[in-house]
Amino acid sequence: MRTGIAFGSNLGDRLAQLRQARAALSALTRISEPLYFSSVFETEPIDTEPDAQPFLNAVAEVEFTGHPLALLDALHEVEASFGRPSKRPRNAPRAIDLDVLYAGNLVLRNEEIVIPHPRLHMRRFVLQPLCEIRPELILPGHELTIAQMLSSLSDSASVEFFAGDWSP
After folding, report:
1. How many Å is the maximal CA-CA distance in the chain?
2. Model confidence over 2-48: pLDDT tens digits?
3. Cα–Cα distances in Å, from 160 out to 13, 39, 57, 64, 137?
4. Residue 99's CB: how many other CB atoms inside 10 A?
């Protein structure tokens, strides 16, 4: 099933960490071609500590065979390999942050995961990179395409192109 994954980093060598996380994602056993990756964007931190550093954000879409919870568990393992604790304050600075954005036409809501991601449609730092690779995507439960969501977004947060090629 076509599955969207968000990448974010605002600690240390942010681009190197995104590259390492991309390589780790590509190596997962249930991930297969085609793999699509957006450019990397630098974004101002939102709802974080006042001295938080800017984020680098990107989005991938992959073919994933399995339940989204299995993917979420694998993404949490990748985050842990970067030293991210499983229990952390919301929106705390992080070396790597990986989120499942959507999984085909699946709608899922439980204590562990909500698909599509409940705030995806309100976040320029996710919509901008996602629009690069899937502008015509319509998420389950939504009527607008990703491009339409992005153009109608009132969020004025800064999202600036950072790097086009971030392959490992």
Report:
1. 40
2. 999 999 999 999 999 999 999 999 999 899 989 999 999 999 887 77
3. 18, 10, 10, 29, 22
4. 18
Report pTM: 0.93
**Measured between alpha carbons, how far is residue 30 from residues 62, 66, 81, 99, 104 in Å?**
10, 7, 19, 16, 15
Neighbours of 129 (CB within 10 A): 24
Amino acid at 157: A
Distance of CA 115 to the CA centre of its chain: 13
158 forms bridges with which residues in the sheet? none
How far apart are alpha carbons 78 and 50 in whole angstroms? Answer: 27
Residue 119 and residue 17: Cα distance in Å, rounded? 24
Burial class (CB in 10 A: 0-12, 13-18, 19+), 27: exposed
What six digits make up the tokens of 148?
Answer: 């339409």
Contact 21, 37 (CB under 8 A): no
Give yes or no for residue 88 having a pLDDT over 70.
Answer: no
Determine the 3-state secondary structure of 37 from DSSP.
strand
Residue carrying the six token digits 């942050």: 97
